[in-house]
Amino acid sequence: MAKTAAKSLVAADLMQRDILTIAPDETLRDALLLMTEHHVTGLPVIDDLSRCIGLVTASDILNYEEEHVEDSLDGGMMQHFNPETQQWESVPLSAFGLEEFGDVRVEEVMTRDLVWVKRDTPLKQVARRMLDQQVHRVLVMDEHLALYGMISAFDFVRVVAEG
């Protein structure tokens, strides 16, 4: 019977409703701070009209930094004076990435091609969409970009674990 009940579940039954979001004009520093403080790896980006217009993930930020570091100094290395050892050291430029790229606006880095489902989408279809798109999370929205929730791969693990 539990199997039958699980088959009838839809996105609205599994989605997390209490979602941390960010505005497109906030910075990558703001995004990383929110992600770190709340132990999440992605934030839906909500515009002034309360529409979900993007998603920014830790991977998006790291990829952005990596792309731009390659365009910077000496093959991605920088000289840094270490006051503890009293010596100059070579460090990867990415170690300074947040300092260099922290003021970049979220809208410059966010993913605009959103993977989403409607609230009444059966869970099997949600899982299939995540697999087909190779994503770890899917947004639950309507065609007007109103965000209702988010489902992560971890949410599916929770359903299986709880039976």
Characteristic terms for this protein:
alpha+beta; CBS-domain; two-stranded antiparallel sheet; 7 strands
Report on the structure:
- By secondary structure, the protein is of the alpha+beta class.
- Helices cover 37% and strands 22% of the residues.
- It has helices at residues 2-7, 11-14, 28-38, 58-70, 97-101, 123-133, 153-162, and strands at 42-46, 52-57, 77-82, 87-92, 116-117, 137-141, 147-152.
- The protein has a single domain (2-162), classed as CBS-domain, CATH 3.10.580.10.
- The model has no long low-confidence stretch (mean pLDDT 83).
- It contains seven helices and seven strands; from the N terminus they run αααββαββαβαββα.
- Strand 5, helix 6 and strand 6 form a beta-alpha-beta unit.
